[in-house]
Amino acid sequence: MVKYEFPKNFYWGTATSSHQIEGGNIYNDWWEFENQGKVKDGQISGSACDSWNRYKEDFDLIQKLNNNAYRFSIEWSRIEPEEGKFNEEALNRYKDMIISLRKRNIEPFVTLHHFTNPLWIAKKGGWLNPETIEYYLRYVEKVVNEFKDLVKYYMTINEPNAYAFMAYLYGEFPPQEKSLKKMLKVLNHMVKAHAKAYKLIHDTRKDAEASIAYNVLLIEPLNPKSFIDRKIASFADRIYNRVFIETLITGKFSSPLLKENIPYAKDTLDYLGINYYTRILMGIKTFFNPLPNTSTDNERSDFGWEIHPEGFYKVVKRFWELTKKPIYITENGISDAKDERRPKYLISHLIALHKAIKEGVDVRGYFHWSLMDNFEWAEGFKQRFGLFETNFDTKERIWRKSAKLYSEIAKNNGITEEIGSLY
Ligand code: NOJ
User: Do the strands 2-5 and 414-416 form a parallel or antiparallel pair, or are they unpaired?
Assistant: First the structure.
């Protein structure tokens, strides 16, 4: 018997991104960054999972997972490796991917920007340069025109907040800036890019559903009794969790150092994509290093991120109240090379999500991060998020227990009594 049943027509999927799985692309800023030795232990993404060539094999696995959706990204630097020069071959390859998915009855959810930028964009100042917005739109126009009959679901930008933080505040992603002011500027430019892309997508296809995939952290004070910790946590929450999304609802970009009315950004979400992994506890002690969260005894991932399913329930409820838009969980998962904690992580997070659904939240899909182990940015290949293990030498994809479990869940459209009681 299915104990935790999900809504009819629920989308079950996994998520990936181009640079993390495809391999062999030399035209973006990450390629340069890696080759400058900036990734942990000097690793480079290299051929990654070789999905640029093996995508049909990947899609067969998705089918074996009984999934009816897949979230992946289009690599801008492949489509436009040089300014104004579009690569038709790359476009056709992506088109073939989408057609191959459709043939397998898998709904494509397409991300248009997932952390990487064409090198030529980076050289012009990346997302600090307001002109990047127009360049990005030109690329988006090309893609959505090409795919207009094939793709209904878009995410204009993946985790604009995490991107701006990692690249412009914490200095861990290229271009390694450390400035709150620059970080806010980048967020502001990304709001504008999203809002304009949203319009463009709808001008091209009326029934399209467009959003962003937003990284939401549950942010709580390290010491709830400390006034300062509470202030720090609420400041972080505002900048990280709220500024961007609220602008897409109200048209007002309202951050501490930068305020601007952007009327055309108002009401530019058809749904909300939520990426949830963990909770962070913010306070004076953790201000510069909120992750990994070592301040509780709760179980953690290989990455050191706290496992906190209640936080998932809380953020889903909160963002539902805030936006009243249908929600898709566009990422949720755990770095766990041995697959010891993943089964429980998966079940406990789905039960938390189910609780929110029972209480009336309109959740329409869940995408597990990730289909297979891949290139985890500044951490390289060590952090393993895959349902499938990847052998990076042979490129073999190997079933993990969690993959089997997830295929059962998708098949049953929920969690059976039997499976639920195992974890
Ligand atoms: C969010 C990002 O979108 C994805 O690229 C990354 O691999 C996962 N989180 C795990 O850190």
Answer: antiparallel
Model pTM greater than 0.70?
yes
Q: Single out the residue of 128, 198, 130, 139 nearest to residue 163, CA to CA.
A: 128
CA angle 118, 251, 235 (to 5 degrees): 80
Tokens 């297979």 correspond to what residue? Answer: 372
How far apart CA 165 and CA 290 sit, in angstroms, is: 12
Q: Parallel, antiparallel, or unpaired: how do β-strands 11-15 and 388-390 relate?
A: unpaired
- CATH, residue 374: 3.20.20.80
CA of 369 to the centre of ligand 1 (A): 8
Q: Is 66 helix (H, G, I), strand (E, B) or coil?
A: coil
Rg (CA), the chain: 20
- Each residue's pLDDT expressed in tens, for the chain with a length of 423 residues: 999 999 999 999 999 999 999 999 999 999 999 999 999 999 999 999 999 999 999 999 999 999 999 999 999 999 999 999 999 999 999 999 999 999 999 999 999 999 999 999 999 999 999 999 999 999 999 999 999 999 999 999 999 999 999 999 999 999 999 999 999 999 999 999 999 999 999 999 999 999 999 999 999 999 999 999 999 999 999 999 999 999 999 999 999 899 999 999 999 999 999 999 999 999 988 877 776 667 778 899 999 999 999 999 999 999 999 999 999 999 999 999 999 999 999 999 999 999 999 999 999 999 999 999 999 999 999 999 999 999 999 999 999 999 999 999 999 999 999 998 887
Q: How far apart are CA 164 and CA 287, in angstroms?
A: 17
* Residues designated as active site: 159, 331
The DSSP H or E segment spanning 31 is helix 29-35
The response to whether residue 302 sits with its C-beta less than 6 Å from ligand 1 reads: no
Q: Which domain covers residue 287, as residue numbers?
A: 2-422
Residue with CA at minimum distance from ligand 1 atom 7: 376
Do 48 and 16 contact (CB within 8 A), yes or no?
A: no
Ligand 1 atom having least distance to the Cα of 377: 7
Q: Are 188 and 258 in contact (CB under 8 A)?
A: yes
- Total of domains in the chain: 1
Residue 292: is the preceding peptide bond cis (ω within 30°)? yes
